[in-house]
């Protein structure tokens, strides 16, 4: 068959569907072509119809295979809210009467240990960003709180990354210690703390794991720290698909570091959980399931997140064994112990002040010398009669010597 260049018309090519727009010269029409050209069109007409027929078959086949079925995405993943079980559902998922809705695959990629303490990003105010380290906004029976949560399908996971929830293990409470070590100090016993870190970094301890009911020894190190991991009770990815996309950056940072949403747990159990919800994963330790589900409910209520229908029904089934279970309030993470201030030396005893010395009353001034020349002067001064010992007395004024002058 004769080959043709793209975008050009070769001699003998049918003009139907092949001639470029604007290639017919002004003043000419298809009906005005020469008889020779009409002959060529008739010669290749059969080939043209065969080519067009094959192209039509290929177009129909492509249209039939390229459009995803209703209710699924192009990748074959069920559309949100369909309740279809996705491949990879955790084996530890509880059996339910309805098909559980599995989360997207992949665990939250939060590092185990932070080499340095990361403060909250500049310009982000985490105060009032949610439950954080104060009391949760929720208190009451878990079943009653669950009844207030919206029930919807999952939103797309599009745009999710760990970075959407701020720097990992940020020091949101500004106590000088990252959130991971705060939680380790809260949940572990028999702690050994690293010197020179102001009581922040946990080197070792023992965890009574709530998920497996096992006692796990924690030893900080590149190959050992993973034995104990900090689990987001409501996984970050799960939260992203159930309302966290609509939260501010400050609220998401608070969510990722809220002690209410954090537990030190067995590392392998945390990996098996991945980002599952109550419909796809529950702790192997059945005695902890009520507390686990009640905590998830409290976290979702505190941050305005929703639950799927499968998740809601799974929570109801768990709480039917403990209808009085309460939604917990936020539990502050451990605070690094502060060194006791050195005792201040006792102030030196101040001696009692000596009593003030009272000055004696001044002696009366001696009377000025008084002299009377005669009794006339005594009488003029009003001192007559004048007695012996009185100022101005003299024997010359007392002629009879009886001690009284100027009688």
UniProtKB/TrEMBL annotation:
Record InterPro entries: Excalibur_Ca-bd_domain, GmrSD_C
Compositionally biased region (Basic and acidic residues): 396-407
Excalibur calcium-binding domain mapped to chain residues: 371-407
Disordered: annotated segments: 1-40, 67-133, 327-360, 388-407
Residues in the signal sequence: none
Pfam families associated with the record: Excalibur, GmrSD_C
Listed Low complexity bias regions: 67-105
Biased composition (Polar residues): 26-36, 106-119
Amino acid composition bias (Pro residues), ranges on this chain: 334-354
PANTHER family, sorted: AMP-DEPENDENT SYNTHETASE_LIGASE DOMAIN-CONTAINING PROTEIN-RELATED, SECRETED PROTEIN
Name of the protein this chain belongs to: Excalibur calcium-binding domain-containing protein
Organism: Arthrobacter oryzae
């Amino acid at each position: 068959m004769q080959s043709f260049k793209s975008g050009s018309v070769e001699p003998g090519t049918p003009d139907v569907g092949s001639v470029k727009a604007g290639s017919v010269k002004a003043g000419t029409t298809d009906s005005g072509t020469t008889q020779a050209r009409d002959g060529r069109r008739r010669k290749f007409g059969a080939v043209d119809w065969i080519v067009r027929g094959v192209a039509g078959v290929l177009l129909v086949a492509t249209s039939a295979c390229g459009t995803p079925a209703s209710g699924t995405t192009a990748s074959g993943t069920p559309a949100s809210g369909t309740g279809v079980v996705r491949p990879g559902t955790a084996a530890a998922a509880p059996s339910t009467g309805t098909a559980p809705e599995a989360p997207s695959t992949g665990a939250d990629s939060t590092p185990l240990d932070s080499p340095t303490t990361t403060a909250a990003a500049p310009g982000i105010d985490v105060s009032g960003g949610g439950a954080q380290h104060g009391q949760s906004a929720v208190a009451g029976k878990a079943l009653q709180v669950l009844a207030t949560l919206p029930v919807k399908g999952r939103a797309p996971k599009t745009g999710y990354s760990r970075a959407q929830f701020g720097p990992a293990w940020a020091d949101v409470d500004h106590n000088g210690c990252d959130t991971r070590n705060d939680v380790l100090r809260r949940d572990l016993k028999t702690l050994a703390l690293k010197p020179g870190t102001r009581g922040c970094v946990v080197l070792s301890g023992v965890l009574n794991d709530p998920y497996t009911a096992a006692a796990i020894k924690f030893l900080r190190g590149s190959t050992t720290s993973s034995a104990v991991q900090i689990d987001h009770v409501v996984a970050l990815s799960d939260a992203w698909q159930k309302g966290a996309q609509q939260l501010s950056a400050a609220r998401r940072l608070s969510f990722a570091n809220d002690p209410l949403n954090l537990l030190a747990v067995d590392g392998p159990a945390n990996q098996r959980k991945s980002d599952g919800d109550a419909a796809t994963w529950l702790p192997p330790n059945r005695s902890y399931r009520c507390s686990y589900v009640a905590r998830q409910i409290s976290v979702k209520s505190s941050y305005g997140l929703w639950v799927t229908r499968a998740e809601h029904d799974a929570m109801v089934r768990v709480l039917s064994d403990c209808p009085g279970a309460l939604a917990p309030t936020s539990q502050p993470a451990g605070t690094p112990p502060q060194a006791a201030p050195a005792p201040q030396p006792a102030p030196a005893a101040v001696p009692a002040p000596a009593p003030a010395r009272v000055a004696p009353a001044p002696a009366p001034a001696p009377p000025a010398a008084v002299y009377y020349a005669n009794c006339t002067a005594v009488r003029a001064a009003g001192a007559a009669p004048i007695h012996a010992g009185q100022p101005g007395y003299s024997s010359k004024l007392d002629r009879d010597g009886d001690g009284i002058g100027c009688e």
